[in-house]
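Running co-folding for magnesium ion.
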Amino acid sequence: RADMAMYRAKEQGRNNFQFYTAELQQQASKSIELENRLRHALQRKEFFLHYQPQVDTNSGQIIGLEALLRWQPDGQALISPEEFIPVAEEAGLIVPIGEWVLREACSQLHRWHRSGLLSPTVKMAVNLSVRQLEHTSLLSTLTQILQETGLKPSQLELEITETAVMKDPDLVVNILHSIHAMGIQLSLDDFGTGYSSLRYLKLLPLHVLKIDRSFINDIGGKQRDQAILESIIYLSRNLDLTVVAEGVETQEQLDFLSRFNCHSIQGYYISKPKSAANIEKLLHKNKDGNLLPMKTSVIPD
Ligand code: C2E
Ligand code: MG
Ligand code: MG
Ligand code: MG
């Protein structure tokens, strides 16, 4: 019987192993397939951008927009950036794709500034991956794109994550200081989800700190979660950083964040990421420039 049990365990182990490798193989071939399709996506013009407003918590005025990459392969459904960006990073394709994002986002904002739809103080935030930061031509690419599109360095904000910094701290900290010296603003994205958040607050030349959505989700829950959030806002303000809360979905969350003096918010409660045309509609609809949903009914004049 002992022999039998041993035999069973071995069989099972082997089966598990086979199952495991099959799944890994499936995953690997899926990302190879994605990679092959990504290689032609730029040329085939399958990418476009959505923009999500960032608004001042008190006035509801738009202070910036975050550019978010979208990919729709010919005749197929949208593929989430959570799925294709890691593949593009792994394959090094994020460098040319990211350059396209920068150029597209900068020229769009410049058009909005020129047409008077947005005030010149409104910035464009663009996500940058560590592969782009490591690339030797980043600074010259940035200079060239600003020149081409006419955007001022101070109107561009680059979002980086702690995880990206951690991958190559010495190099990344250096390059971020050069970007800062150009007058471009830097934003720390997904704050609180990395390993040594406080250390990076000390080391990096930051303008903006974006509190990760998971902290905002917890509002209305435990006292401890709220205390942490309150302290992050307080700390950022003391460090002269602009605080953006990500993923605000409810009035309750907005109320909490205004009560604790969080400068600005971004999230579905204000607007989902939208195409350029739909951003224009949103701005035209709110002529007074206040993008906060109405709490009380408006008295007609
Ligand atoms: P992220 O930079 O942290 O962007 C915020 C994400 O949260 C976006 O997801 C946005 O649609 C989503 N979001 C905003 N408000 C809410 C909300 O109220 N509720 C919920 N549930 N979600 C909200 P998205 O567009 O799918 O992008 C995911 C991630 O992909 C981004 O996270 C960023 O890390 C990456 N990404 C997107 N575009 C680019 C790009 O051009 N370059 C690079 N390197 N990464 C990008
Ligand atoms: Mg971001
Ligand atoms: Mg984020
Ligand atoms: Mg993220």
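Result summary
The longest helix spans residues 2-41.
The mean pLDDT is 91.
Job closed.
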